Predict the structure.
Amino acid sequence: MKLRLERLYPSESVILGALAVILGLVSAGGVWLFKWLIDAVQHLTFETLGSALQPLGNWVVVLFPLLGGLLVGLLLHFFIGQERYHGVAGIMESVALAGGRLRYKRMPFKAIAAAISLGSGASVGPEDPSVQIGSNLGSMFGQWLHLSDDRIRTLVAAGAASGIAAAFNAPIAGVFFALEIILGQITGTALGVVVLSSVISAVFTQAVSGPEPAFHVPAYALNNAWELPLYLLLGLMAGPISALYIRLLYLAQDFFQVRLRIPRWIKPAVAGLMVGLVGVFLPQIFGVGYETIGQILTFQNLGVVLLLGLMVAKLILTPISIAGGFPGGVFAPALFIGATLGAAFGQVASQMLPQLNLVPAAFAMVGMAALLAGAVHAPLTAILL
C-alpha cells in the first residue's frame, strides 16, 4: 500500500523537468513582450516623434535619449531603488551568496526601464534584461515552491539560459552562458534542467517570431591558409580592446557614482544627452546596433574611417550609458565593437594583400566572437553565439 501511494507522487526530477518546461515558455513569452516594448518605444520616438520634429533639423535626435533618460531615472528612483550590483552581476552575486533568491517583484519595472532605454537610443544591449527576466522568473518559482538553495540556483541558471535563447534564438549558446557565467560549474541535474528550459524557450521564440537568428551570417570560405595568421593578429588586437572596454566601464561608474554629485534620477538624462550629441553625427550608435552589424556581415562596405569611428564611439558611449543608469547589457555593444574592428581590419588587410582574396565580413564575424570572449570571459558562449 505504501509503495502504491509513493507512485502517486512525482519524483523530484519530474518536478524539475516540469518547472524547466514552464520556465522556458514563460521566459520566452516575457522576452518576446520585452522586444515588442522596445520596438514600440523606438517607433514612438524615432519615427512618430522624429517625423513630427523633423522640420527643426537633425539635432532633434538629441532629445530622444535625453527624455528616455529622464523617464528611466524616475523609474529607478520611485520603483526600483538602489542596487549594489546591476544586471547579470547581481544575478551572479545572488547565486553565489544568497541561494539564488532575487527580488523578482522589481522585474516588471526593470524591463520597462530597459525597453525605454533601448527604444530611446541608449547604447546598451537587450540580452542583460532578457537574462534578468528569465532568472527572476526562475527565482520566483523556486521561492514560491520553497525549494532548496541548490534547486533555486538551478532554476535561476535555467532562466538565464532561456533569456539568452529567446534574445538571440540560440539555445546552445544560452546553455553555455548559464554554465560558464551564472553557475560556474556543470552538474548532471543542473545541466538537464538548463538544456530543457533553453530549448523550450527557443522553440517558443521560433513559433511566434520565426526561425530567424539574430544575425544573418553568409557562408564564408577560407580561401587561403595564409589567412590564419591574420585571424591570429585580429585576436591579439581584440584582447586589449576588450580589456579597455571593461576598464572604461569602471571609469564611467566611478565618474557617475562618485564624482558627479547630482541627484541619481538625473544621471541617466546626462548620459542620454552625451549619447544624443554623438548620435547626431553617428546615428548607427543608437540602441542595439543589430542593423549595422547585419550590414557589415552581408558585405556592405561602410569604409574604414566610419567603422573605426563607430567602434570608438560605441566603446565610450556604452560605459557612459550603463554607468549613467540606463538598464542594459554589454553583450550587444561588444558584438558591435568586434564587428566594426574586424571589418576595418579585414578591409585594410584585403587592400594590402589582394592576392589572398580576403572577405572583410568574415573578419567581422571573428572579431565579434573575439571581442565578446575577452569582454565577458566566456569563450564558449562567444564562439557558439
Notes: Residues 215 and 290 are 7 Å apart (CA to CA). The first helix runs from residue 2 to 8.
